[in-house]
Amino acid sequence: MSPLSPNKHLGIIGCGWLGSAAAQLFIHENWQVRGTARTADALKHLEKNNISAFRYVLGDSKEKLTSFFSGLDLLIISVPPGLKHQSASDYLIHLSLLGQQMQAGLWEHTRVLFVSSTGVYPTSGGPYCETSQWKTDSEKSDYLLKAEQLIAQLPFESCVLRLAGLVGKDREPIYTLSKKNNLRGGNLAANLIHQQDAARLLLHLGTLQKLPALVNGVFPQKIKKGIFYTKKAQQLNIAVPHYTDTDLALDRHIYSALHLDFKYQNPL
User: Fold this and answer.
1) What is the pTM of this model?
2) 3-state secondary structure of 241
3) Burial (Cβ within 10 Å: 0-12, 13-18, ≥19) of residue 1
4) Is the CB of residue 240 less than 8 Å from the CB of residue 233?
């Protein structure tokens, strides 16, 4: 699979921590990038980083996206549910509205990358890869799958990218877990991906001649949360969190059947 020609146009709906990192990689490859944000400060940050900024909140009217959609070759949708601010049902309603706006405003050859989450997989069992057969077993799993289906059914070539837990320079879960006791889930796999690897994966997918329908974005390792966060705490010289069930068999391991290249060879 060879890359497309340069000087293409990319739009990122939800150009935040991950989207901005991906944008810089596309800009380096001579793409023209537009991004949406919710606040004035976020819009200024995008413009400062050579990203054409558009104010947009999921659920806004189509007029907000008319010029944003114009002439796009690739659209990345990176808008997590954010259930602190809206219900799952409202999120799906707003995402459905976005789908209608896409059909009205995008040209038919625009390709779409939808950033989802490995949270869509069941809360136990596995291992799970792109071809695994399973059923949703929680409200979260159910609405994440419905969101993926809303985008996949649109008349565009699209790919769902299920990202594992994002880590990076400004995002280390261990600081929240440090000093905590009697934690559960220590035997669950530490399914993670570094921000820069996730951004590189978006660039890789966005420049393929043909998109796969589904990709799991997760670092290829088998390590339990209890072990991972113990090592991470020791590395940072902070208090170790204590899990009660790390000795149980590894559970809920998620991996990709694709052979992906990772810059960060070990999240530790």
Assistant:
1) 0.94
2) coil
3) exposed
4) yes
Q: Residues 65-116: pLDDT tens digits?
A: 999 999 999 999 999 887 556 788 999 999 999 999 999 999 999 999 999 9
Spell out the residues 6+ positions from residue 75 whose beta carbon is closer than 8 angstroms to its own: 10, 11, 12, 13, 69, 102, 106, 110, 111, 112, 113
Segment holding 97, helix H or strand E? helix 88-105
At position 68, the amino acid (one-letter code) is F
User: Do the Cβ atoms of 254 and 126 come closer than 8 Å?
Assistant: yes
Residue 5: the pLDDT is 45
The pLDDT tens digits of the residues spanning 184-194 come to 999 999 999 99
Cα gap 13→111, rounded to integer Å: 13
User: Going by CATH, does the domain composed of 9-166+191-219 fall within 3.40.50.720?
Assistant: yes
Do residues 184 and 243 lie in contact, with contact meaning Cβ atoms separated by under 8 Å?
A: yes
What type of residue sits at position 3? P
Half-sphere exposure of 147 (CA within 13 A, CB side): 30
List, in order, residues 6 or more apart from 12 with CB less than 8 Å away: 19, 22, 23, 33, 34, 35, 36, 51, 75, 76, 78
Residues contacting residue 174 through CB under 8 Å, at least 6 positions apart? 229, 232, 233, 236, 238, 241
User: CA 175 to CA 171: how far, in whole Å?
Assistant: 9
b/e burial code for range 28-50 (CB count within 10 A of at least 16 → b): eeebbbbbbbeeeebbebbeeee
Q: List CB contacts of 266: < 8 A, sequence separation 6 or more.
A: 219, 221
Domain ranges of the chain: 9-166+191-219
